[in-house]
């Protein structure tokens, strides 16, 4: 595994405090506008643009540079189900910054209990309570409706950050089922650096540097059904795993 960074931990801790200050500052100043935009579903796309600005501000203040590579251009007229690997709490703001269009996150219900995120996961984003089959089904129905309304869905196949990230955790069916049932193209996304900028384990640290994103070519699910989900899941896992290894071998 590649070395995370060139900075000592004390620097990472101070840098994390610096970032947390600006994270909160932007949110508190923008909260009235967030509240207004999120009070009407028609304004959700504008609310996403505001949090995109929030993400840009956070990454700028953290001295984190972004670089996006596309295997092929995405069709702006289409909606997609994006399936990124999950290795850091920076995944959500970095995806908001680097992926185009109106994005809706489908994530675990625990995020809705975090004060800063509650306003999003009770409005623009969708919280999934996996402990309740009924609530989970309701969330997936809502996600399908959002796709029909023109939103792009962000669904982490791993569901949560794996204990040994950046190694991939076990993939769940979520994004694959949504893509197949709604006949929406699935886009694997590889995030090779987020775990280095803000490791999930070992303390509260943030480090400056580059944060890359590799957007793979869309996978057509036309004609597929639920029986094809295991094969599709394995295909996407291999795609992301291979790209992570490629990035690691070039460091």
**SSE pattern:** HHEEHEHEHEHEHEH
Count of folded domains: 1
Identify low-pLDDT runs. Answer: none
Q: Can you give the mean pLDDT?
A: 92
Descriptors:
single chain; 251 residues; alpha/beta; 7-stranded mixed sheet; Glycerol-3-phosphate (1)-acyltransferase
Give your account of this protein's structure:
With 251 residues, the chain is of the alpha/beta class. The chain has one domain (9-249): Glycerol-3-phosphate (1)-acyltransferase, CATH 3.40.1130. The chain has helices at residues 9-37, 44-61, 91-98, 115-121, 133-148, 174-182, 194-197, 229-249; strands at residues 64-70, 81-84, 103-108, 126-128, 152-155, 186-190, 209-215. A seven-stranded mixed beta sheet has the order 1-7-6-2-5-3-4, with helices on both faces. Helix 1 runs antiparallel to helix 2, helix 2 packs across helix 3 (91-98) and helix 5 packs across helix 6 (174-182). The model has no long low-confidence stretch (mean pLDDT 92).
In short:
45% of the residues lie in helices and 14% in strands. The protein is α/β, with parallel strands linked by helices. Strand 3, helix 4 (115-121) and strand 4 (126-128) form a beta-alpha-beta unit.
């Amino acid at each position: 595994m590649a070395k995370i960074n060139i900075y000592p931990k004390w620097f990472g801790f101070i840098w994390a405090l610096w970032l947390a200050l600006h994270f909160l500052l932007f949110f508190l100043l923008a909260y009235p506008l967030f509240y207004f935009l999120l009070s009407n579903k028609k304004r959700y796309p504008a609310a996403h643009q505001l949090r995109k600005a929030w993400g840009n501000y956070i990454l700028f203040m953290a001295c984190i540079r972004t670089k996006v590579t596309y295997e092929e251009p995405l069709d702006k007229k289409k909606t997609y189900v994006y399936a990124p690997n999950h290795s850091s709490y920076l995944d959500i703001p970095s995806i908001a910054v680097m992926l185009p269009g109106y994005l809706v996150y489908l994530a675990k219900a625990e995020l809705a209990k975090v004060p800063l995120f509650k306003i999003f996961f009770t409005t623009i984003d969708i919280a999934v309570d996996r402990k309740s089959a009924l609530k989970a089904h309701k969330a997936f129905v809502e996600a399908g409706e959002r796709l029909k309304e023109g939103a792009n869905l962000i669904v982490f196949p791993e569901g949560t950050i794996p204990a040994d990230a950046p190694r991939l955790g076990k993939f769940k069916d979520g994004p694959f089922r949504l893509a197949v049932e709604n006949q929406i193209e699935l886009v694997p996304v590889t995030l090779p650096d987020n775990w280095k900028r803000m490791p999930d384990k070992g303390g509260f640290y943030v480090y400056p540097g580059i944060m890359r994103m590799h957007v793979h070519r869309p996978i057509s699910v036309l004609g597929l059904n639920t029986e094809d989900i295991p094969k599709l899941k394995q295909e996407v896992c291999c795609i992301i795993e291979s790209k992570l290894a490629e990035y690691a071998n070039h460091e």
